[in-house]
Amino acid sequence: GENVLRMSSGIQIKPKTAVQKCKTSSPLPCSQESAIKPQPKPSDKLNPRTIDPFGAHSRPLSAFAAIYAKGGIPCRLVHGSVKHRLQWERPPETFRFDPLLVTLAEGLRETKHPYTFVSKEGFKELLMVEGATEKATPLLPRLVPVLKAALAHSDDEVFGRGLDALVQLSAVVGCSLNDHLKHLLTSLSRRLMDKKFREKITVALQKLEQYGGKVS
């Protein structure tokens, strides 16, 4: 017979090939091919599904968050109906400032709850205990670089917490902070150009001058 069927319209149609017949007829001839699994994409090797580099569990905790998770911060957040507060394991005046005060200062750079509240309130309340001046002054060489990092942070809330902590520290240690102010004024002068911080920074500078005396 002929290999080409001729229709009345003159259009020539070729008969189905063996591969085409395999698709429309019995699947037995192609069963082996259909059982073969597709080859993995190159991206699957680079980013296997078992590893999510952007997952929450893949991100390492910050130093403060890790210490907090292990119970190294002796206070916890207590949710109140009006406002939150801290609950200390025992009176805060019974704790050593070294390294607790430095650790709380490092937590000022946190951007997640509850670390933001715990570090800010913990730093503030620890400086309010009796004898805070004698306990905090020897730690200034370690506290100032940490506060400087908070003041240089791009997050506005982190900067605000750092500025509040600096004023609180100045009120406690007084003129002892004067020798360290030169390391902090650069960060303050940069933010002074921002209108939303101009008034707050000006007030902070006035308090630093008040607590530091004429030398400041």
TrEMBL record:
Skewed-composition ranges (Polar residues): 22-34
Gene3D superfamilies with a match to the protein in the record: Leucine-rich Repeat Variant (1.25.10.10)
Sections of the chain in a coiled coil: none
SUPFAM superfamilies the record matches: ARM repeat (SSF48371)
Highest taxon of source: Eukaryota
Renumbered residue ranges of the record's region Disordered: 16-49
Protein's recorded name: PACRL protein
Organism ancestry: Eukaryota, Metazoa, Chordata, Craniata, Vertebrata
